Amino acid sequence: MTAPGVHPDSGASYQEVPRASAPHVKVHDLALLEFQGPQLQRARAFFTAFGLQTVAGARDTEMFSAEAGAPVAIIYRKAPVASFIGPTFAVRTCAELEQLARATGSPGPVPQDLPGNPPGVLLRDPNGLQVRVAWFADWRALPSCGEAQPLNRGADRPRSNAPLRHPRRPSRVLRLGHMVLGTPRWEATARFYIDNLGLIPSDVQALPDGRPAVAFMRCDRGAEPADHHSFVVARLPVTDIEHAAFEVPDLDEVGMGGAVLQHQGFRRAWGIGRHILGSQIFDYWFGPDGHKFEHFADGDLFDADRPTGYHAMSAAGLAEWAPPLPGAFLRPRLGRREVAQLLRNLFTRSGFGIAELRLMAKAMRSTSLPD
Ligand SMILES: [Fe+2]
After folding, report:
1. What distance in angstroms lies between residue 99's CA and the mean position of ligand 1's atoms?
2. Collapsing DSSP states into helix, strand and coil, what is residue 339?
3. Domain range 29-138+171-365, its CATH number among 3.40.50.2020, 3.10.180.10, 2.30.110.10, 3.60.15.10
4. DSSP letter, residue 143
5. How far is the CA of 177 from the centre of ligand 1 (A)?
6. Residue 2 pLDDT > 70, yes or no?
7. Could you tell me the distance, in angstroms and rounded to a whole number, from the CA of residue 161 to the centre of ligand 1?
8. Which of 96, 128, 168, 328 is buried most deeply by CB count within 10 Å?
9. Is the confidence at residue 340, as pLDDT, over 90?
10. What's the Cα-to-Cα distance from 3 to each of 26, 121, 187, 234, 310, rounded to whole Å?
11. Contact 192, 125 (CB under 8 A)
12. Closest residue by Cα to residue 174 from 200, 198, 144, 134
């Protein structure tokens, strides 16, 4: 792990991304994501092939669930133009919602416009995204996946007369794991989620001038280990969800899930590989409206004591092993609205202008690897 120091390619000092000393609340997990767009049927076809279950809902709305977590993980509402509406985070108690409402001057807790109308508080992040924090009476614990199949490795050969046969079916999707939010308002956005929700920066990747480019943030569960990241803020020229990720039990579930998606004509964005920061085995797919969705397995868990790691941003630092990174993976999803936003941001003092674009391009050519 790298303490805040100097960037290996430029000698610039890393800017620290400190934790909040007294966050308004410490969320327990990412609960669900809301989208809108014109492709209801496509959304249904993709998310069921991806391994989610459909949940009956209102007219012109498709809802999907995983095995654990909130009773619904994805809500897709019909609308003429595709966009990400926002995330919902979960807290463990209603008392935390009261605390959050008081601290932010927001009404609540009030029933949220979600299945089961859980009590919650509605916030707006610096990008104008809707951020719900809610308490779910029907939150479901992660199930046991049983004992792992024995592996034949070198001289250790426990599996004999027992051929492996995996059925061709969509992945078993356990839970929503994380999302990445791209934004040109990096500093204000990262502070919003850290100070309001108590998220802890696990690892930060920096541009060559030392400013943060990406912060991988986890939920503060104290001594109980949490996913390396539940929410990531990435410095990008357009405000949008960059991808959302769902946990599956193991490598075979990642691989078989990919085979099913491919067979059904969906397009892989990048994978299969293993990340460096977070260590997950990953596989990314393009879903409805060009948003990306990831199957992942075997990610890192950190408790609240682990300090933040600082690293140079680089393409080489994205994976220990994987196929070459396709250009399409890095390009923002560009509808008409996003193109206008991109042009406005690039040519005004937005936090992601030409200077940042050059720094990001330089960073992505770097061969620096995280420790
Ligand atoms: Fe991811």
Report:
1. 31
2. helix
3. 3.10.180.10
4. P
5. 8
6. no
7. 37
8. 96
9. no
10. 24, 35, 20, 20, 6
11. yes
12. 144
72 vs 10, residue with greater confidence: 72
Distance 243 CA to ligand 1 centre (A): 7
Strands (DSSP E) contained in 301-357 are: 301-302, 309-312, 319-321
For the CA atoms of the chain, what is the radius of gyration? Answer: 20
Average pLDDT over residues 317-336: 89
In this structure, what DSSP letter does residue 333 have?
P
| Burial (Cβ within 10 Å: 0-12, 13-18, ≥19) of residue 371 | exposed
How is the chain split into domains, by residue range?
A: 29-138+171-365
Residues having C-beta closer than 5 Å to ion ligand 1: 245, 294
DSSP SS3 for 337: helix
Mean pLDDT of all residues in 335-350: 83
Average pLDDT over residues 280-286: 98
Task: Give pLDDT tens digits for 117-136.
Answer: 999 999 999 999 999 999 99
Ligand 1 centre to CA of 232 (Å) is 9
Q: Is the pLDDT of residue 53 over 60?
A: yes
CB 79 within 8 A of CB 40: no
Average pLDDT, integer, range 86-115: 96
Mode of pairing for the β-strands spanning 231-235 and 53-55: unpaired
Band (pLDDT 50/70/90 cuts) for residue 5 is confident
Classify the C-alpha dihedral 73-75-76-79 as positive or negative: negative
Q: Distance, CA 332 to ligand 1 centroid (Å)?
A: 15
CA of 109 to the centre of ligand 1 (A): 31
What is the DSSP-derived secondary structure letter of residue 17? -
User: How many whole angstroms from 68 Cα to the centroid of ligand 1?
Assistant: 18
CA of 179 to the centre of ligand 1 (A): 7
Per-chain mean pLDDT for the chain? 94
Helix (H) or strand (E) holding 344: helix 336-346
Residue 13 CA, ligand 1 centroid: distance in Å: 27
DSSP state of 282: E
Enumerate the β-bridge partners of residue 226.
302
Q: Is 188 helix (H, G, I), strand (E, B) or coil?
A: helix
